[in-house]
Specification:
By secondary structure, the protein is α/β, with parallel strands linked by helices. It is built from 31 helices and 13 strands. Helix 19 packs across helix 26. The protein is globular.
Length: 868
């Protein structure tokens, strides 16, 4: 049917209801001109406002300056054709503004901008991507729905099973029991801070007393001596501990307070860092108890307390090695300590469970700003941890720094440091104070005139001295293979006052000493200190020049040095890095030798646990240590490897056969019957007999070793020495007049038959007494070999000061923390009584030692250690 009346709207465009068409492809129809527009004014259409109006959405494009409209050229398939429609179409076709279809298409394709084409391509890409994403999304959603359904089914099954399980009457009873217990658990009381303070005070005091108790041993009295009961009580362990504490009131010496303060600061730091009082209490109690036990055992074995350097044994993995030194007599003590630690742990755990206070300082890291209380608690928690650590560090540093506020406070309370004698310091001031005072160590004080210019002048001076010495010496050190042997605890027991044998325990070595360069060596240690004597022999440096707080250079100094000098480097400079090797039939990290020997330049350290372990590890009878004959065989193997080579080498051997403790290791010990000593306790006599049999084995094995070296067709020189006496001569040690004797061991320098220095014996007057730092210059004199400026200085110094050491004994030592000097006859020389030349040489020696250890090492570039 017609939509509009042709008589009234003949000029109106045809409007039909069309289906939705694409935006492009429309027909271009210009707007009517002004004349036609007036004919088709809105007023002309007012009479047909009720008619249906069908419109087609068309894309409107601004293509030219003239406005135009695109109207899709499509039919209306859903509307029947009528005459009226035909008339309308004809009117439209006959319009003066109509354009043929071909023209419309041409305009559309010609006028389309390239940007529009790009937009259309992007639209198609977006449409394709969206369709792909939609498909993938539907697939994911379907999979998620399936998975969720499976999970829901499984959860429902588990829930049903759990409900079935919990509905049993027995389970219900258990649940109700724990619900009531949880209610009581939440209502448990919080221990007060006053209770914490009581525990803190009691535990710290107990540890101070326990540490001090471990420093003493029950006295032994000579037979027939009458001692009253009061004296026995006062001299007993309990009496000495009581005196240590009571001197606070009797002598106004608050040394106990100084120890308490050090341990209390450690305890506080643990509390504030962990913020858990009972956890800190457990760690503090167990650690200090273990420290006390180890300290007591070390005092019995080595006559010295535990020092910070000893912790390197643990960090180096030598805990098992340390335990092997525990004597059987102390095993009951160790077992009792373990039992105590177990019960202590149980008690602390019970208190931890009963205490409703979990944090010592209230705080929360999960909700740090939940409220003002938590914010303040977090701030105090952080500040308390930082301040406690800072306070402890300041106390430790100050305690070892004379002149500091902490040091003055400790001195005012009776603290009198004896750092030259660790055992005496620990007995007088408590092991805790001794340990803390040694935690910060300064090796040497800087000499007043130390500078690059001074060291250049010193190097030039001793280069001239070396040239003067070398004019009369045709040989070289590297012409010989040098074997330096540290024989563990080797010394002649017959020289100890009060000890006598009807048999000579060392006849072979005594004969060797009579035919070659030999004498007695002044040792800084008694009962221990092997690494110190070894350090002096390898470097030419002496402990007497170091500060008293530097006790073990191998653990406190060498690991921190960049390029320490040692005499084995003389052979390395000529024959390469493989020219020096070391052997030690024990653990490689003992005294950090594995680290220090690498720094010294040794190509390898063969030990029981080295990557290439020792092959010869046999022991004598029931002894736990590798025998000397097996150790010597390892050296012979190294010599065999170089037998066809013209080069020589430097070999270092540290034996273990005679290391303490001493037990019934050897069968058929003839020295038990040969011991004719008087006034010895049974325990002392038993130890001496066992030790003497061991060095008798060393005497035989050393003689066999030298005989084998005599068969080798290469020049070889041996430097043999004992490091220290064993700490078993209790009776002799009680007499202060025996201190020097208990620090003297045997040494000799021997060359095989092929060496030009075979049967050489340097003037016995100048070699009768020496110290291990002089071994290399003495060996150079024995071999008539040229020397470096450094060895020239040591040669001159040995002539003026034959022996020097910082001697440490069990009852205060010798020298009161200062160096001990001996003349050629073995008599003590006061520093003030030394000659002007000796004093000048000692000053130069200290300059050299400072430069090589903690100074700028100016001498390294001045050929000071270079041998011609």
């Amino acid at each position: 049917m017609p939509i509009f009346s042709p008589d009234r709207h003949a000029c109106a465009p045809s409007y039909v209801k069309l289906t939705k068409q694409p935006i492009t492809g429309g027909a271009y129809r210009p707007l009517a001109n002004d004349k036609d527009s007036n004919a088709c004014a809105p007023s002309a259409l007012s009479g047909h406002h009720g008619s249906k109006l069908y419109t087609q959405k068309s894309a409107i494009h601004a293509i030219s300056d003239n406005a135009s409209v695109f109207i899709p050229k499509v039919d209306a398939p859903h509307l029947p054709k009528t005459t009226d429609d035909k008339s309308i179409d004809e009117a439209a076709n006959n319009s003066t503004h109509s354009v043929p279809p071909s023209t419309e298409i041409q305009l559309t394709q010609t006028d389309k901008h390239p940007l529009v084409q790009a937009v259309e391509v992007c639209k198609q890409s977006v449409h394709t991507t969206a369709k792909a994403l939609s498909t993938a999304g539907h697939a994911i959603a379907k999979a998620a729905k399936t998975t969720g359904h499976a999970i829901h089914t499984a959860a429902t099954a588990v829930k049903t099973a759990w409900q079935t399980f919990t509905n049993f009457k027995a389970i219900q009873l258990i649940i109700r029991f724990f619900q009531k217990a949880h209610g009581l658990w939440k209502k448990r009381m919080r221990f007060s801070y006053a209770f914490y303070a009581i525990v803190f005070f009691l535990l710290t005091s107990a540890e101070v007393i326990f540490l001090q108790w471990g420093m003493y041993s029950e006295p032994e009295y000579e037979k027939g001596t009458e001692i009253d009961e009061t004296t026995k009580v006062l001299q007993s362990v309990g009496g000495q501990v009581t005196r240590f504490i009571s001197q606070m009131w009797l002598e106004q010496k608050n040394v106990c307070l100084v120890s308490f303060m050090g341990l209390a600061l450690i305890y506080l730091a643990l509390v504030f860092v962990t913020n858990r009082f009972w956890i800190a209490t457990l760690v503090f109690g167990v650690a200090l108890t273990a420290f006390g036990v180890a300290n007591s055992i070390k005092v019995q074995l080595r006559n010295e307390p535990i020092i910070p350097a000893d912790l390197t044994f643990i960090s180096g993995g030598d805990t098992g090695s340390i335990m092997s030194f525990v004597p059987k007599s102390s095993q009951a003590f160790v077992n009792g300590a373990i039992t105590f630690v177990i019960w202590f742990t149980i008690i602390i755990f019970a208190l931890f469970v009963l205490d409703g206070r979990r944090r010592f300082i209230y705080c929360s890291w999960r909700y740090p700003i939940a409220n003002i209380k938590i914010i303040i608690g977090n701030v105090f928690r952080i500040l308390a941890a930082i301040l406690s650590v800072v306070l402890l560090s300041a106390y430790v540093i100050g305690l070892g720094t004379p002149g500091s506020g902490t040091y003055r406070w400790a001195k005012d309370n009776g603290y009198e440091p004896q750092l030259w004698n660790a055992i005496g310091d620990a007995q007088a001031n408590n092991p805790a104070t001794t340990f803390l005072s040694l935690s910060k160590v300064k090796a040497m004080d800087k000499p007043d005139n130390y500078s690059q210019k001074t060291m250049q002048s010193l190097a030039k001076k001793y280069a001239q001295e070396a040239r003067a010495i070398n004019q009369t010496r045709p040989g070289e050190l590297t012409d010989n293979t040098v074997i330096m042997i540290l024989s563990e605890t080797f010394s002649d027991p017959i020289r100890v006052p009060g000890v006598s044998f009807s048999l000579d325990p060392i006849p072979n070595i005594r004969n060797i000493k009579n035919t070659t360069t030999s004498g007695l060596m002044l040792s800084p240690g008694y009962g221990g200190g092997t690494a110190n004597i070894e350090y002096q022999a390898l470097t030419g440096l002496n402990l007497a020049n170091f500060n008293d707080s530097l006790i073990v250079p191998y653990q406190q100094l060498v690991p921190n040095q960049n390029n320490p000098y040692s005499f084995n480097q003389i052979w390395m400079e000529k024959y390469g890095k493989n020219a020096s090797t070391a052997v030690h039939p024990f653990q490689q990290s003992m005294y950090l030798r594995n680290i220090n020997y690498r720094k010294f330049g040794f190509s390898y350290l063969y030990t029981l646990d080295s990557k290439i372990p020792l092959e010869h590890t046999g022991c004598i009878d029931r002894s736990p240590y590798v025998s000397d004959s097996e150790a010597y065989q390892s050296i012979l193997d190294l010599l065999d490897k170089q037998q066809d080579s013209k080069s020589s080498q430097f070999l270092q051997l540290i034996t273990m056969q005679n290391h303490m403790p001493y037990a019934d290791y050897y069968d058929n010990n003839e020295f038990s019957d040969a011991n004719i000593s008087e006034d010895l306790s049974d325990g002392e006599r038993w130890n001496i007999n066992a030790y003497t049999k061991g060095i008798n084995w060393t005497d035989q094995e050393t003689a066999d070793f030298l005989n084998q070296l005599d068969q080798i067709d290469k020049p070889i020189t041996v430097i043999f020495y004992g490091d220290h006496l064993p700490g078993i001569y209790d009776t002799a040690d009680m007499d202060k007049n025996n201190k020097t004797v208990l620090h003297e061991t045997d040494y000799f320098i021997w060359s095989n038959s092929v060496s030009p220095s075979h049967d050489t014996k340097v003037n016995p007057v100048t070699t009768a007494y020496t110290s291990s730092n002089y071994f290399m210059p003495l060996a150079a004199e024995h071999m008539n070999a040229k020397v470096s400026p450094y060895l020239a200085m040591l040669t001159e110094l040995q002539q003026e000061v034959p022996a020097m050491s910082r001697m440490i004994g069990t009852n205060g030592g010798i020298g009161q923390g200062k160096a001990t000097y001996l003349d050629h006859a073995g008599n003590n020389i006061k520093a003030a009584a030394l000659s002007a030349k000796a004093k000048r040489l000692l000053k130069d020696y200290k300059l050299v030692q400072y430069d090589q250890t903690v100074g700028k090492n100016y001498l390294e570039g001045l050929d000071f250690t270079q041998v011609p």
